[in-house]
Amino acid sequence: MSTSRLDVDEESVGRDLVALVLTVVELLRQLMERQAVRRVDEGDLTDDQVERIGLTLMMLERRMRELCDAHGLRMEDLNLDLGPLGTLLPNS
Length: 92
Description:
Elements: H1 10-42, H2 47-70
Helix pairs in contact: 1-2
């Protein structure tokens, strides 16, 4: 009986895990952004709320880029290819 052992590079596994987590966070960030734009278009928000949402979304995007840089990733690395379905994240 032969047992095969999977050799994994600890650094690459860690990087892949970070990429997966950041992908989920980026997906949620984009969904929140679309929801905010919809609410702004519908006129549901005060000027102050629009300003706060805009600043928050800008800070989130900047932080995502910082996290990608810190882990040697590009934002494009977070866009999973789903085969015939296309990519997970829309091309911005």
